[in-house]
């Protein structure tokens, strides 16, 4: 099968390159002349990647972020195995996750922030919140937030089976039911089950994943309530998973999530949303899974999070007020993270921001918001975080720039227990119990609009991070050390999209520069703060060929910051993921797809010293109704 797949991939490469050429050609306005677009800026919830389903395992919330223009997913094994999610060249613990009104969190380490036992079928497409939007809606994260909504349930069924290289086998099933009630509301329920196994694209890179969920939903004309329960178990191995010692490392994660979310619209922009959740994450990490006397895995941790959150939007006294409150308690039980001062914590957050709107004399409108967030815990000092933004909207029918904004956002976060409670002078990971509250200040300006048939936006920003927790390396010392660092990050981000006849294009361009100050500490290299793309371009191409055939391609080109921890001096990468699918016109409930990950078998290390996953090809059959 490998030889056959390689032959097929050699035929795909011109299509990928052709996708890039077609994208650039379209940017010059030479691919057709579509009807004028009247969207007021960028549709942030629209599809911005071509392949939302992964190749090597079943789909998870992180799957749709792999080629997202504004997100850098740095994976170990599969992105669905263990992934660090970075926004605006931030660190893995500077990205928050939010579902509905609820901030999802793991207090042990940011490596597990994306451990969400939810199928994508229950979630809206992700929104990437940055700047003032993140300062208002995010929680305990400095760079940005990946925000999801709860998708309405509809009567549907999806069954998928797949098999391919490296003894990969996966299957998933989703079922949704709805019924009308006497009061005019809709009562729904959905269930899903998914499983995946593989020997891995490199030796000792095997995995065994399982997930199950159930949800009950009540939906009325202006309200929606979701009650969710999910469980996910993941075992996977990977050489140099966390340490650069060529050891047979493995991870065994078991995550439980129970969540309740209620949203109610009062008319206009007013409304309320509130909810609560319980999350338990068990982590069993083995440094050597094949040790002669049994697995050497003294790193066993269990975390619990219980949280409640509420958000209100209300128009009063000529202003639209937005208020938010979060109360979150966390707890850790660990066999090794025992050197710190505490293992439980209570977080409290309050935010308030009024917004004023008006009509501009020359047409269009303006908005201004001013507010602050208050963060506090029973273990750290409290902090006030101001925010301000001005927006000018020239109207949806204006060609060229339609929306301009200037904003300043301030956010804070606390360190996780791996940094706080790891021993300071021994072990593979060395912590610091005196790490305090971290702050991030972001000043940004942006423009969005329509030109030459393209919808796009461009943002430039400057972020100052103070006392940020990074994991560093020093020559002669084998351990990673938690160190405080002050960073200054300058960046520019642009996203453009266009649809022409049977073609869809999304182009993303980002550029970042950074200054770092480790406050006099002896640091020779960094695993995270100094591991970011200086230049990155993404291109998603969807071609509806006809007669039921469709080609989807995601491409990424990057120039990485130099890092002596990377075993190869190579700093450039060209990564692609593609699929060719066929839906028989006479049997539209079925589709057949050939999917490929890492088309060019690129060996670029997304995390320094961690081997890259190799090319993998899988054939899938999907039934949807």
Describe this structure in words.
It is a single chain. With 625 residues, the chain is mostly beta strands. It has a single domain (2-624), classed as Maltoporin, Chain A (Beta Barrel), CATH 2.40.170. The protein contains three helices and 30 strands. The strands form three sheets. It has a 22-stranded antiparallel beta barrel. A four-stranded mixed beta sheet has the order 4-3-6-5. A two-stranded antiparallel sheet has the order 1-2. The longest helix is centred in the N-terminal third of the chain and has 26 residues, at 2-27. The model is unreliable at 1-45 (pLDDT under 50).
Layout of helices and strands, plus pairs?
Blueprint lengths: L1 H26 L43 E6 L5 E6 L7 E5 L2 E3 L22 E3 L1 H7 L6 E5 L7 E9 L3 E13 L5 E13 L8 E13 L3 E17 L8 E20 L2 E17 L12 E18 L2 E16 L9 E16 L5 E13 L5 E11 L6 E14 L3 H5 L7 E2 L7 E14 L2 E20 L6 E21 L2 E15 L7 E2 L6 E14 L2 E12 L11 E11 L7 E8 L18 E9 L1
Which CATH class is shown?
Mainly Beta
Strand content: over 45%
Rg measurement, Å: 24 Å
* Number of separate structural domains: 1
Q: Could you give me the name of the CATH homologous superfamily? A: TonB-dependent receptor, beta-barrel domain
Report the span from N to C terminus: 31 Å
CATH topology category name? Maltoporin, Chain A
> In the CATH classification, which architecture applies?
Beta Barrel
Any idea what the shape is?
globular
Helicity level, as a percent range?
under 10%
Strand element count: 30
Main beta sheet: 22 strands, antiparallel, barrel
* Overall average residue pLDDT: 90
Low-confidence segments, ≥5 residues, pLDDT <50? 1-45
Structural class per helix/strand content?
A: mainly beta
| Number of helical stretches of at least 4 residues | 3
